[in-house]
Amino acid sequence: MTALAHDSDGETLAAVTRRPRAARGAGRSVLIGSALVYLGLFVLLPFVVVFGEAFAKGVASYFASLADPKALAAMRLTLTVALIVVPLNLVFGVASAWAIAKYEFRGKSALVTLIDLPFAVSPVIAGLIYVLLFGARGWLGPWLREHDIPILFAVPGIVLATVFVTLPFISRELIALMQSQGRDEEETALSLGASGWQTFWRVTLPNIRWGLLYGVLLCNARAMGEFGAVSVVSGHIRGLTNTMPLHVEILYNEYNSAAAFAVASLLAVLALMTLIGRAALDARAPELRRTTLPSPNT
Amino acid sequence: MSATALPTVPRARRVLPGFGLTLGYTLTYVSLLVLLPLATAFFKTAELGWSEFVAVIAAPRVLASLELSFGAAAIAALVNSVAGLLVAWVLARYDFPLRRVVDALVDLPFALPTAVAGIALTALYAPSGWLGRWLAPLGIQVAYTPLGIIVALIFIGLPFVVRTVQPVLEDLDAEVEQAAATLGATRLQTFLRIILPALWPALLTGFALAFARAIGEYGSVIFIAGNMPLRSEIAPLLIVTKLEQYQYAAATAIAVVMLVVSFVLLLGINALQGWSQRRLGIARTT
């Protein structure tokens, strides 16, 4: 990962200008040392133990747990959900950022807060509200049952709950980015005779591509890893409505620890790849990180 | 930004096309997926009536779970405020080998699915685990106690403080610190009188974000908590339990209490971020 530091002029320049005030001496070592110990104990160790436990019964057992039909079904479902959720929130993210960043209108800040709301809602409550809406005793439950449309305890419910918890990721990334870019370039393109769509595809999209990728990366990581919301709406039907995180829970509760950690290790690798992708994007477009503030439930 | 528009263009005529389409789509999407589902929670609770609502919330088991969720979240956010400040300081001010790897590592709790974090922390702190076996002889039991809940919430909350404080530290003007040093201030005085006051808004924002995330957290907590009613049962878990017993109204009542607190926190965080930006004089977009 350190190699990434050198493949961009932006980063090396920032490194030179940003840290001129490094104090020397014992205080510095003590501070760095305690920060590293803290991060090692509270962040790195939980990550490492996943792999330690996953291979506790040996390599053969590890791969056997992954090849289990129920585990494979869980992987398929998780991929399917992400493949539906990410494009939905991608289109929403671009549309909302276009409206919010390029125009002034009344109630804009209320709309931005509304888009951020899912970050402030507990995942369990995100699941609960869909149960209230679509459950057997919910508002639409009886109608859905009459027409034989399965939503709760089926894939559509999992997709809806996941869309809810990941809704802000791409949108807030693009709003910040497009606000900082303004609309001069688009207006120039239009005045030169480009159509609206041409302007979007040839001017706006190239300008926001790294921010878009950044948002997709985070949205995808959360969509594949979401547990609380999905757990409430899925009904835990093995092989049918179990995503990978839910499968991990079931295996763990059955005292099948090694198998649980084996499936968990795939999710840990996904997290690692997300971080590496993020670091690569940071090196390529350093302004991205500066425009984004973290939010609850990110 | 809007000031750059030509003054001759009437306000009603939009230069860029697509406003109606994108705003309409955005409003429909948000209304159907966020506003309508959230509103059902409030309507469902309204069915209860005030006295029933109070009875649900005032039940000892519910009160205990709310107290635990808010209390543990506050302690964890406090620990993260101190530790997060330390980590942000080290990352912003010092250069050391693998600094960029360590910097990326801070985001791991964001990226690691909560269920994975939950079972990993449990494995670490269980009496036979890598850390638990060293703590057990000292009489400290972490897993399956409220202490375990705090440890899980510390894990998931760390990035919030670091990522709000770090950019502010990087932007702080070095000249002010140098001036303080020239005037005879010790390093501790400079930190307490110059740096810390400038950091307060960011530190508070980080605390609020970590706290807001921690009160609703579910996946990383339930494995390590032990989940004993009245002792180590968090509010989100109690919501799930009530749902499984088909007590929809009770589950929703607890959810509404948590939602209201979350909304207040969200508004507070927005105000804090505005304050923080004005104080720093940085036109950072949110």
Order of helices and strands of chain A: HHHHHHHHHHHHHHH
* Average of pLDDT of chain A: 86
- The whole-angstrom Rg of chain B is 23 Å
Strand content of chain B: under 5%
> From N to C, what is the helix and strand string of chain B?
HHHHHHHHHHHHH
Please, how many helices of chain A?
Answer: 15
**Average predicted local confidence, pLDDT of chain B:** 88
Q: What is the subunit arrangement here?
A: heterodimer
Describe the global form of chain A: globular
- The H-level CATH homologous superfamily of chain B, spelled out, is MetI-like
Query: Which architecture of chain B does the CATH hierarchy give at level 2?
Result: Orthogonal Bundle
CATH class category of chain B: Mainly Alpha
Give the C-alpha Rg of chain A.
23 Å
Question: Brief description of this entry?
Answer:
The complex is a heterodimer of chains A (298) and B (286). Chain A is 76% helix and 0% strand.
